[in-house]
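Feature request, filed as a ticket because there's no other form

It would be nice if the structure record came with a short human-readable summary line next to the tokens. Right now we just get the raw output. Example of a typical job, pasted below so the devs can see what we mean:
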Amino acid sequence: MADLAYCLNSSTIRLAPILDKIEVAAQAGYSAIELWHDDIDDYLATGGQLADIRKALDDRGLEAPTTIMIKGWLGTTGDVHDRCMDEVKRRMNQTAELGIPYVIAGPPLGAVDMKTAAAQYGKLLALGREFGVRPSMEYLGFAQDINSVNDALEIISNCGEDGGTIVLDPFHCFLGGGDMEEIDQISAEQISISHFNDAPAHPPRRFQLDPDRVLPGDGIYDLKQYVQLLKSTGYRRWISLEVFRRDLWGMDPLKVAITGLDKMREVVEGS
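Raw output as currently delivered:
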């Protein structure tokens, strides 16, 4: 039996409408699903209500750990920053109305002053408390500066606010400036969620981007060691299948979700 909760990041079946994604996650056997704000907005634009999404989750017994994502809170200035923060607030409000605990805070891809990043993340945490949601710091392996667990840990440790968390991701550990052993330096309470995926042998690592990631066990990354390190922190919550593959988007979503869950279980329960 697994001691982690299996979650489906809805990017894995991106082309399905949001209520279909929720149904697929439940039918496939996941206990949770991560929702993207773009999907939420598409549903609202057709006349749907946030309450419909919440009811669909409740009817199918699914948790929703995170919404994805807020951006522009760091690396913007002036009127652009003000507009970005208006959007951040709108998305935080959606997350709160859906009863979802975390919203993922994406970093800029370019150069970042880490002191500024920490200060801005602190402000983001304080803003989140006004809405009743917790922004969680994401690192991206292809970003210039915030590309490793240690980078994210530096930001949440120096932000001057309590409650900072990190989104872990094996693909970004593979691509980024650190390695998976950095997970040893964080506690379970500092992890909002762990995304789960694998890295292919080709193209070369320095050329890989989101669409290159593959299903767990189909790549070359040592996912069993990753799971062992994750568990060693004491973390026992969500592990979420997140891939961005056009070939999978063209397949039956339920088949993709079931296949992905089987592959997750093979890695996690054999670790």
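Something like this underneath would help us a lot:
The CA atoms of residues 94 and 205 lie 36 Å apart.
The beta strands are 5-9, 32-36, 66-70, 102-105, 134-138, 166-168, 191-196, 238-241.
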